[in-house]
Write a structure and sequence with these properties.
The protein is of the alpha/beta class. It has helices at 12-23, 37-47, 63-72, 90-98, 111-122, 131-141, 146-156, 161-171, 176-183, 187-201, 206-215; strands at 3-8, 28-34, 51-54, 80-85, 103-106. The protein contains 11 helices and 5 strands.
Length: 224
C-alpha cells in the first residue's frame, strides 16, 4: 500500500531534496508540495495525504498553526503531520505535539531516518525518539496548565486499570511490541488497549496520548 506525502517547506531546494528521497522508495509517493503554511492547509484539504512533512518557520502561516488547523478538522483525521525543522528548541517540540503533530524530527536526520519516520507516522504511531526528545517532552509536560490537567483527569476516569497501565507505557515511549512484552500479552492485544485508551480520552494519536499521560501526572520526567 502506497503512502502519500505532502512536502511543506518555504525553500524550493529543500522540498526538491525531500521529494527525491521520498519518491525513491517503492511504497512512498509525493503527491504535492507547499511553500507556505496556508498552502499546506489548502493542499492537505485537497489531496488528503497520509503524511504531511511540515516545516515550522514559513511565511503567511507558520508550520505549528498550519498543523493545528489540519489536525483540528474532522475530515482530515487520517492525515498525520510530521514536523521537520532546524529549530529543535524545547518549546518547538512541545508546541508541535500540542498542535497535534504525530512526530518531530530535526532536519539533520538522514534519508533512512526520514523514510522510517514517515512510515512510522503513517502507521498511526507517534515518533518521539530519540530518548533525549522524550526527556524534553517529559520536562515540559510534567507541569501542565491546571485547566488542561483537570479536563484530562476526568477523561482518565473511563479507563480500566489495564488501559491506565498501557497509557503509562506509551508515555514512556514504548512501542506496541515492547508493551506486549512488558505486560505478557500479544502485540495485537497491546494495540487494542492503546486504541481503546486513545478513543476514551479523545487522543487523535499516540503523541497526544503521551501529552495526556504527562499532563495528568501518570508519567513524570523522572520515570524515563
Amino acid at each position: 500500500m502506497t503512502i502519500s506525502v505532502l512536502v511543506v517547506d518555504d525553500q524550493a531546494l529543500i522540498r526538491a531534496g525531500f521529494s527525491a528521497i521520498i519518491d525513491s522508495e517503492p511504497d512512498l509517493v509525493v503527491v504535492g508540495e507547499a511553500a507556505t503554511g496556508r498552502e499546506a492547509v489548502d493542499r492537505a484539504r485537497a489531496l488528503r495525504p497520509d503524511v504531511v512533512l511540515m516545516d515550522i518557520r514559513m511565511p503567511e502561516l507558520d508550520g505549528l498553526h498550519a498543523t493545528e488547523q489540519i489536525t483540528s478538522e474532522p475530515e482530515l483525521s487520517a492525515v498525520h503531520v510530521l514536523v521537520l525543522t532546524t529549530f529543535e528548541a524545547d518549546e518547538n517540540v512541545l508546541a508541535a505535539l500540542r498542535a497535534g503533530a504525530a512526530g518531530f524530527l530535526g532536519k539533520d536526520v538522514g534519508p533512512t531516518g526520514l523514510i522510517e519516520a514517515i512510515r512510522t507516522v503513517a502507521a498511526g504511531d507517534s515518533l518521539l525518539s530519540p530518548r533525549a526528545t522524550r526527556s524534553l517532552i517529559a520536562r515540559y509536560l510534567s507541569t501542565p496548565m491546571e485547566a488542561s490537567a483537570t479536563v484530562s483527569d476526568r477523561r482518565l476516569d473511563s479507563l480500566t486499570e489495564r488501559e491506565r497501565e498501557v497509557v503509562v507505557l506509551v508515555g514512556r515511549g514504548l512501542s506496541n511490541e515492547q508493551i506486549a512484552a512488558t505486560l505478557f500479552v500479544s502485540p495485537f492485544t497491546a494495540k487494542t488497549h492503546v486504541n481503546r485508551a486513545m478513543t476514551k480520552v479523545g487522543a487523535r494519536d499516540r503523541a497526544q496520548l503521551v501529552v495526556i499521560a504527562y499532563q495528568t501526572g501518570l508519567v513524570r520526567a523522572g520515570d524515563l
